Amino acid sequence: MAVHAHPDDESSKGAATMARYVAEGHQVRVVTCTGGEAGSVLNPKMDRPEVVENIAAIRREEMAKAASILGVSHRWLGFVDSGLPEGDPLPPLPDGCFALVPVEEAAEALVRQIREFKPHVIITYDENGGYPHPDHIRTHVVSMEAWHAAPDPDRFPDAGEPWQPLKLYYSHGFSRSKIVTFHEALLARGQESPYEDWLKRWDSNRPDVMERVTTRVECADYFKVRDEALKAHATQIDPDSRWFAVPVELERELWPTEEYELVHSLVDTTLPEDDLFAGIPKETA
């Protein structure tokens, strides 16, 4: 089970891993906490009045298409996108948005999903949310609360029979070392790199998340599936953007994995890992 904040997050964070496990016969579910209602249209090709006016419904359609491409089942938690506040000082978050919903309320909704689906592995965001969007940070908080509550019969007794997941991971999709690898490879081939300005803005004092990574999942054979799922989110992903600047063949050669940090495990495993199901008996997984 992968827990995400908005539709499209599942396709930009760990999508190839999910597609690999689906192909290997695992059941995979994506849970999306909000509908992405506050998201802007980020693809200029889709920035039309009729799209902006119907963004909530269109994003639901995009999510259904992406889930179908990845082969995963999908559930909405049903909370409202908080939006990304901008300005100095930052404006208050809108009433009723996901980031302001009581943690217990949101955790109960996620516990219900966990007890229904009965995952052995849960993937979510780290304490920084992957990036500091209020919905991403709240997704982390809610996921951790649900991890502890799901097996406890005294917590949320109306949310289904208790279930104990065996492993919990943080997804780490954006590392400086990965971007540097792609940047240098493109320049070495005489090609323009879209990452130069990004790297200049990168805080050199900020630790690279690769220092936290415990698990690298080989999934290069599913990068094209990942890209098709991303493109399904047409309001958010410009097919001519830097998302697709690195040819898939080069990406497979240079960085054929997706990265995770093992946070909780109730099974014995040896780090570093190359499999999210490492240590889980095959008859269980």
Commentary on this structure:
The protein is α/β, with parallel strands linked by helices and 285 residues long. The chain has a single domain (2-175, 210-265), classed as LmbE-like (Rossmann fold), CATH 3.40.50. The chain contains 10 helices and 7 strands. Strand 4, helix 6 (134-149) and strand 5 form a beta-alpha-beta unit. Helix 4 (55-70) packs antiparallel against helix 9 (223-232) and helix 5 packs across helix 6 (134-149). The chain starts with a strand and ends in a 20-residue tail after the last strand. 41% of the residues are buried.
Task: Report a brief summary of the structure.
Helix content is 35%, strand content 13%. With 285 residues, it is of the alpha/beta class.
- The general outline is globular
pLDDT average, as an integer? Answer: 95
Number of domains: 1
Give the biggest sheet: 4 strands, mixed
| β-strand number | 7
- Residue runs with pLDDT of under 50 for 5 or more positions: none
- CATH architectural label: 3-Layer(aba) Sandwich
Identify the strand order in the major beta sheet.
Answer: 4-5-7-6
CATH superfamily: LmbE-like
- CATH fold description: Rossmann fold
Q: Give the structural class.
A: alpha/beta
Enumerate how many helices there are, as a single number. Answer: 10
How much beta, percentage-wise? Answer: 5-15%
Oligomer: single chain
